[in-house]
């Protein structure tokens, strides 16, 4: 039997938005579990790739913009040229850290459209690029947010986009089901990543969010690894169209 920490041995994974933050944590965890990993971001993710390689893993870095279909097509080509296949896609790239909390009436149409282009259309376009190259039994993991269940105020465009990711996950799981490709989502609560810690808006909100949880502590990126590896591995072969909320019990549904 393969050791649990190597349960992705022989698999090829691709993580978008993985140059830093939570995406970097996802990429490192997949590599530690034995996967060969393509690390993608809008900037070259050299640090993430270097850390994987230094720990004995295999990784390549690719610059890709999830709002640009040609960029995503090139990303998949580079992944399959390097590793021969694609088993796991983690749609992590998204707009959050650069957004400021504001009333719905103060969100510009330009900002709204940009958030939707990255957070929703980017997920769809990445799946369009990746699915033809994916093997039977492959796994697609989309990253949503607990805010979609809570109706968190003052980030209407972000919350709406993450609700759309849940709907997209359910619908495309049915379309890819005949190919035995599982499509699921993870919905984190507020995670104290470096970007969040540097964000003025969330520094003030963190205490009230923690107090709403059954497990009353801050969430760190490593708290998401268990759900990620479950959905990426054969352990979840009969799980699809689902969203796992990982927020310490703030949302219960």
Question: What does this protein look like?
Answer:
- This protein is α/β, with parallel strands linked by helices and 253 residues long.
- The protein has a single domain, classed as Rossmann fold (3-Layer(aba) Sandwich).
- 42% of the residues lie in helices and 17% in strands.
- The chain has 9 helices and 7 strands.
- It has helices at 21-32, 46-54, 69-83, 109-130, 147-150, 156-176, 194-197, 200-211, 225-232, and strands spanning 12-15, 36-41, 59-63, 86-91, 134-143, 182-188, 243-246.
- The protein has a 7-stranded parallel beta sheet with strand order 3-2-1-4-5-6-7, sandwiched between helices.
- β4, α4 and β5 form a beta-alpha-beta unit.
- α1 crosses α9 (225-232).
- The protein starts with 11 loop residues before the first strand and ends in a 7-residue tail after the last strand.
Write a concise keyword list for the protein shown above:
alpha/beta, Rossmann fold, 253 residues
Short characterization:
With 253 residues, the chain is α/β, with parallel strands linked by helices. The protein has helices at 21-32, 46-54, 69-83, 109-130, 147-150, 156-176, 194-197, 200-211, 225-232; strands at residues 12-15, 36-41, 59-63, 86-91, 134-143, 182-188, 243-246. Strand 2 (36-41), helix 2 and strand 3 (59-63) form a beta-alpha-beta unit.
């Amino acid at each position: 039997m393969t050791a649990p920490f190597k349960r992705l041995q022989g698999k090829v994974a691709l993580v978008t938005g993985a140059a830093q933050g939570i995406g970097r944590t996802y990429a490192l965890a997949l590599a530690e579990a034995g996967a060969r990993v393509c690390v993608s971001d809008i900037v070259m993710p050299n640090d993430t790739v270097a850390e994987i390689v230094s720990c004995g893993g295999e990784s390549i870095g690719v610059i890709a913009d999830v709002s640009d279909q040609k960029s995503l097509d090139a990303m998949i080509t580079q992944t399959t040229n390097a590793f021969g296949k694609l088993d796991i896609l983690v749609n992590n790239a998204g707009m959050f850290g650069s957004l400021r909390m504001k009333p719905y009436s103060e969100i510009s149409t330009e900002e709204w459209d940009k958030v939707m282009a990255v957070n929703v259309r980017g997920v769809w376009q990445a799946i369009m690029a990746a699915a033809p190259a994916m093997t039977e039994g492959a796994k697609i993991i989309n990253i949503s947010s607990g805010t979609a269940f809570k109706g968190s105020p003052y980030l209407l465009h972000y919350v709406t986009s993450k609700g759309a990711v849940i709907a997209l996950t359910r619908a495309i799981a049915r379309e890819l089901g005949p190919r035995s490709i599982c499509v699921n989502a993870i919905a984190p609560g507020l995670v104290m990543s470096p970007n969040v810690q540097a964000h003025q808006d969330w520094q003030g909100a963190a205490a009230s969010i923690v107090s709403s949880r059954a497990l009353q502590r801050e969430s760190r990126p490593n708290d998401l690894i268990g759900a990620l590896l479950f959905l990426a591995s054969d352990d979840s072969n009969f799980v699809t169209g689902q969203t796992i909320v990982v927020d310490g019990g703030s949302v219960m549904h």
